[in-house]
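Q: My labmate handed me this sequence with no annotations at all. I'd like to see what the chain might look like in three dimensions before we decide whether it's worth expressing. Could you predict it?
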Amino acid sequence: MPRFNDGFIANMYLQIKRFWRARSRVIGSIVQPIFWMIFFGIGFTNSVTLRGPGLVYMDYLIPGVIVMTIFTASFFSGMSVIWDKEFGFLKLVLVSPAPRKASIFGRLVGDAIVALTQGVVISIVAYFIEPDLNYINIPIVLCIALLVAVSTSSLGIIIASRLSSMEGFGLIMNLIMMPFIFGSGVFFPIEAMPTWMKALAYASPLTYGADAARELMLGVSSFAIMHDVLALLIITIVLIGIAMFSFEKMTVG
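A: Here is what I predict for the chain of 253 residues:
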């Protein structure tokens, strides 16, 4: 147990410290969602009509952008694995006395904390842009978004465990992340999607996180909130299991 705790805490601390030392990543992770809200929210507010009394596009967009910020940030778990492979640090992790499960779980929790911190910052910014939403439910939104963070971090680690170059991971990450973002209901309702896109949306943890956030902050959703939470729990448990299995089998040449 002491070895497990040491491995868990060390890897969690590493991920948090690594983020705060990368100033460009800190700035970019905050500025990019603000651009989404300003250019998409303000730009489309007068041109997009949504069903619902008094519902405007900015109101619809902000809950999704908050969860999308956490989703995007969580993908960097995989990038850190690739980085550690290239610079040899991963060898130390794999041969350390701490169980590999402790290492991977520490990484997941560390990255989830980093992602949630960004979600808090964007929530504060969103309040000044559109203060009429139900921000009192933000703590519940962030608790649900924690599942999005952990599941997405697990997916990033699963992909990274099979790759050995930053370029390859960046390409695969974009190929997966962009369809998940635009096919998740963050920017337009799932009901407006064609059937093939709905199938993609149902497989994305971002879909259920954004839908639950919209229900809590706006009172509008495509699914019941318990449906969103249950779907997120199932996706998270499955992806954590695969991520741990992949990390257990990982070797570094």
